[in-house]
Amino acid sequence: MAIEGEAWVLETPGQPLVKRPRSWDVPPAGFALLEVLGCGVCHTDLGFADGSVRPKQALPIVLGHEIVGRVLATNGSSAQSLQGKIVLAPAVSPCGACPACVRGRPTSCPTGRMPGNDADGGFATHTYVPSRDLVVLGDAGATTLGSIDLEPWQIAPVADAATTAWQALVRAGLARDDVAVFVGAGGVGTFGAELAASAGAHVVAIDVDERRLAAVAGRVAAVIHSKGKEPREVRDELRRFMKAKGVTTAPVRVFETSGHPDGQALAFQLLERGGSLSVVGFTPDKITLRFSNVMALDADIHGNWGCDPALYATVIDRILDGRVHVAPYVESHPLDDVNAVLAALAGHSLAKRAVLIPRRRGSDA
Fold it and tell me: Residue 272 in contact with residue 252, Cβ under 8 Å?
């Protein structure tokens, strides 16, 4: 059943991805073959492409881990019901059997499979993904999803950006009337802020980019433009907000979603007594911290790697029924523009989360 298509391949770090013809056949046991409908572009992809982060699979590799697609074939009787469905592939699929998975920490699975890192990903017309954790979004032939008529490609960033944010909220124990502070209102931060608001938290978004704050301002309790401000000034603004809201005794849950050393340093300094810090963003750069603050404040710090596939359905439900928005934060680009999109991401000129859409065979679009 060989299917012909194309993939954009990372062959040399720091060099443009290269378009190569590819063919896909019957998927391996336990896997599904997807026709890619859209694949989000993440800063992790940029790190792999520019050589600052090394993917686990040896080069060449097809990047892309935020994949939404249509199931063309499966290998395994338990997956037959997926045939033709529109699905979302989790950014990381845990093994389900190792000690970490058994004790309820699948995001710590040492053999979890991440497309575009452990194996070829979604910057292609087709890809193989594990069938066990696929999340069904719609039936075969569906052109829009949910009560708000989202196009399938718009869901792609949920595979990582939105669900990773939700995992962080769950691990932090975020509850109604807590104060949730997001340092960084990019892809993960905006989704996290909306999800926290949907859970009843008092949400504050902080960023150096006024455009990002403007995009989320109407959906959170407050925004703080931190450009040019000292951490103490930002902390004072946050405390004034809490006083005005009457929530000075509420737990403060800080989520570092900027993936920038300055953002990480600021997030650490926003820790309050009995509060928590969730590190969600990534940077290879080092920062200096007075770690004794954690002891003195009786605070918690959580790491966060991806999302437990069991939590995806909650996020999808909130998006498809309109409680959490996606459309304002995403934009589509042809897959053939992948190198230009990566360059724009590196230059911080993208206002929205980019999703790459392969050109369909027989189409001039």
Answer: yes
Second-level CATH architecture of 3-160+308-357:
Alpha-Beta Complex (3.90)
Mean pLDDT value across the chain: 93
pLDDT in tens, 164-174: 999 999 999 99
Please give the structure tokens belonging to residue 143. Answer: 């052109």
Q: What six digits make up the tokens of 227?
A: 């450009």
Q: Does residue 75 register a pLDDT over 80?
A: yes
The correct answer on CATH 3.40.50.720 for the domain covering 162-303 is: yes
What residues does each domain of the chain span? 3-160+308-357, 162-303
Q: How confident is the model at residue 18 (pLDDT cuts 50, 70, 90)?
A: very high
Position 363 scores a pLDDT of 47
